[in-house]
Amino acid sequence: MRTMFLILIGVVFVTTLIFAVLIWKQTVKIEKRALAAKKLKEEQMRKLELENEMEMEMQKMAEERQEYEGASTQGNIGIDEENNSQP
Question: What is the pTM of this model?
Answer without folding.
Answer: 0.52
